[in-house]
Amino acid sequence: MDHDYQVSGLVIGCAIDVHKALGPGLKEKTYTTTLCELFDRRNIKFICDRTIEVAFDGVKVGEYRPDLVVEDTVVVEVKSVLRMHPVFTSQLVTYLKITNLRVGLLLNFNCPRLKDGITRVVR
Q1: Which end of the chain, N or C, is surrounded by fewer C-beta atoms within 10 Å?
Q2: pTM listed for this prediction
Q3: What values do phi and psi take at 12, rounded to 5?
């Protein structure tokens, strides 16, 4: 089985557990912090708010911070919004590009059922 797919499954499982425990409507940071706690408990390696520099012709032009990078494989963006906007997916695709990773998850915790708020992106 593909490692990216396995890691995506672990993240989604943890996210569902967090959503069941906390419910919808809280701040994004609360969900991110709770996910990190659960990843720690389950010995899942992650980096929270990792700074990634963006360069143009060798010159640093900016830096960005994906919410989570899990197992050095999957970029995770956490949202808690009424409606998903296409810019969120574009942002995730850009994070995949600048991290040279293939798989990303966009998790919107502001849904009655989390499965309705999950978007998986493969680059």
Answers
A1: N
A2: 0.93
A3: -65, -40
